[in-house]
Amino acid sequence: MTLHALEGHERPREALGRAHSKNGLPAVLLLHGPKGVGKQRLALWTGQLILCERASGEPCGECRSCRMSLRLEHPDLLWYFPIKRPPSKGSRERDREAAEEVRSEIIARVRENALVPSYSEDPLGLHLATVRNLKKEASRGPAVGTRRVFVLAEAQELVSQEASPEAANALLKLLEEPPDSCRFVLTSSEPGRLLPTVESRTTSLHVPSLPEDDVARFLSRFTEASPEEIDKATKLSAGSIGRALGYLPDQDDPGPLERIRQDAFALLRAALSDHPADRFAAALSRPPSGARGLHELFQSLETWLRDLSALASYRDAPVLNLDARAWLLKTVESRSIDPFRPAECVTVVERARSLAAGNVNPQLILSWLLADLHDALASAGSLVPDEA
Ligand SMILES: [Zn+2]
Question: What pLDDT score does 267 carry?
Answer without folding.
Answer: 96
